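Email to the structure team, subject: TIGR03364 family FAD-dependent oxidoreductase model.

Hi all, the expression group asked for a predicted structure before they design truncation constructs. Nothing fancy, just the tokens so they can compare against earlier work. One-line instruction: predict TIGR03364 family FAD-dependent oxidoreductase, return tokens.
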Amino acid sequence: MQAKFDLIVVGSGILGTFHAYHALLRGLKVLLLEKDNYPVGATVRNFGQAVPSGMVDQWFWYGVKGLEVYQALQKEFDISVRNNGSVYIASDKDEQQLIHELKTHYDTVGYACDLLSSDQVLKKYPAIRSSYVQEALFFPQEVSLEPDKMIHRVHAYMQSRFENLTLNYNAPVIGAEQLNEGVCVRRSNGTSYLGAKLVICNGNEFKLLFPDIFSASGQMVSKLQMLRTVPMPKVELEGNILTGLTIRRYESFEMYCPSFNQIGTPEHYLELKKWGIHILFKKATDGSFIIGDSHEYADSNQVDDLGFQISSYINRLMLNEAQRIVNFDVQQIAGSWAGYYPQHPEKNIVEINVTDDIHIRTCIGGKGMTAGIGYTEASIQQLFDH
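Reply from the structure team: attached below.
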């Protein structure tokens, strides 16, 4: 049995890491445990876009907080954050109507955004085809980052700054028991730790801890396919590029745009929507582009049914639509991968208090990179101030 911690966190993706971060800011002694060599789940397999403009209700405000923290961390330590903004490009009159309505909403709440004419879009983003763009909505304060680098650099920053942090990789946790005071956590190698509180941020790992609870939680798992081009540093397409299918998908448009449920679906979108495809572009620091993505779903009890394979058909659908939007050769692909993340059909996040001191905080859906930082700050406040 080793020394007692104020907080033990299982899982070092964005939810686990920033639960630890906000606890450390309070001066607490924190143990952060990661089952793999390093984080390999949804935190590193996404686009690397922080877009509060796509969120609703308190998740929007969590996203705004996330932007503040990303920018503050970047000033102290290079975690790969770049403030190039986000743009939603409308390709037809229905999508134009929606971006106008979303601008009206954000003008009301004071979140800066600008409508761009087709000429302004083409001047700012020369890689967009003139045949695609009608108008766009630009959010200057939003940021992009490198998903395969960010969490590693945040860990390095936290280890250099906080003496009260213990971070262990290759540390699967297979047991957690409520004691009279606090929690005992047991690793697969037999090592045990004592903590005042335990937070479990397990991503789509449902089998190691409390499998019966997760089986009954109602979670689904979404499988996403993404692609990365070879480096194309001369292509001018900076920032978070979101397109017509995104306008027709994101929660903020559904919630805040009166016309959302009145618009039809063009025939050429039908097969794309069947596979949950909406096209995003994000230029990486090496000049390559991440393009995607798609969505396939399975119950958390049958997650293996999603498989490990990459569907060439889905990739072709995405690349064909991407080529309709941009004027560079999207077929120059260096690699493709699948990401998996849990989401709930009714809840924005799954919060389960197993005991007084054992807490599950997981299933943030696709909102982690944007809203995870703000959410974890509120979660730590709730756990330690109530």
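The longest strand covers residues 333-343. DSSP finds eleven helices and 19 strands in the chain. Ping us if the truncation boundaries need rechecking.
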